[in-house]
Amino acid sequence: MTPIVHHVTHPLVQHKLTLMRQKDRSTNSFRRLLHELSMLMAYEVTREMPTSMIEIETPLATMRSPVIDGKKTVFVAVMRAGDGFLDGMLEVVPGARVGHIGLYRDPKTLVAVEYYFKMPQDMHERDAIVLDPMLATGNSAVAAVERLKETRPKSIRFVCLLAAPEGLRNFQAHHPDVPVYTAAIDERLDENGYILPGLGDAGDRIFGTK
Question: Which residue in 69, 83, 87, 204 is the catalytic one?
Fold first, then answer.
């Protein structure tokens, strides 16, 4: 199976990402930009969302027209940075269910350690969209999707703001069946596993922590 990467190059996405990368951007501004950018990314990741036809009445006539079933979509936020990605997605698909996966990266081994997992019921009927702003080493993303696959969702897609080539290779080696949507593929990882040039620690910048 050939891995699929969707590089979202829309000018609005790239403009807002450039602003987010700036180191002097305030927490409030960073959070607002992430909210706007996640709404734009939602349009891309839901482009092939299935629809069904219903009968409606316009002011002039009766017609059949398509609607989506948002309840069949699950946004899976990888805590904690994924939570900052979530609100904009829910504005576009307000009927979606929400799941959470809690992972932290061991600072010595960089291996992902799970501490929380909560999904809606009947995942076999749902399409899962995993949200994590940074695909750096890829270890957390690999672990999150591996755990999610145990619930046997209909489909899985992974959405991030930034990806490092190393993280993409790692993720695709483990999950070639899961498409990746990203706004940028950066140069590389530094010795601490951070994306270069990147935008710093997404969680710290979203929540104003260090």
Answer: 204
